[in-house]
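User: I'm preparing a small set of examples for a lab meeting where we compare how different chains pack in three dimensions. I only have the primary sequence for this one, and I'd like the structure in token form so I can line it up with the others. Please keep the answer compact; I'll paste it straight into my notes.
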Amino acid sequence: MAKSKKGNNKDDHPIDKATQEKQWLEELKNSEAVQKYLAGFNPDSVDSFLKDYLFRKSIWHSGATYLTGNIENEQIQWVNTAFEHLEIIQQKKLFDAQCLWRAEKIKFAGVEICEDFKVWENDVLNCPFIEPVNEEDIDLYALYLRQNNADAEVEPYGEWQEYDEIKEAYNTSNANRNFPEWYDFHNGRTGNGTLMLLPDIRGEKEEFYCDLHFDHQHEQNKDRDREWEEKREKRPWLHGYEDDTLK
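Assistant: Understood. Below is the structure token output for the 247-residue chain.
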């Protein structure tokens, strides 16, 4: 059986916008129900209405996938927001765990450096070493949201495990950021504010070894930097946009 040549089928080619609108207009004109409906309106308005209708239908038709996606996102927006608030509940648990870990009060499988808590911040609902959200968590968080000064919108902190900045905000009034309201409320109800007083043993160890590393790197690079400085061209650049130079 001979194969048909590609493109012979009219369905192989998309209909251009003008042709499509012309077809839709013919469908409207040939529809008794539509004509009966339009007859109930001022004839002078019908033509402009049809033009608007065809213009909008063309947009809906060409952007169907995009518009459908927007509708679906709006329909599940409350679900996404709920998950964001569940993440906030878990961020506090993760931060408390970080305080204990930094003070060497506890160990967690797979956590070797402070930066590992930043990794779990981005996937906090799947963090294996903190308890899943339970009813008590929900009740406490709901109580927090019902405060007069609480904002039901997700708090715009962005980085919930920034230990140094958050601890500085807790201890001083001159920090670069505010202490998270949810953390403050949670501490007041659970007494977990005492965790903010624990020493940062692991953080200080990491800082000590990082300093050793950078000092070592600096010593290794001294000869290279000295050689580069000796060979570096020290004469100034010649710029064509400087009036005095051009003169």
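A couple of notes for your slides: Confidence is low (pLDDT under 50) at residues 1-10. Residues 201-231 form the longest helix (31 residues).

User: Perfect, thanks.
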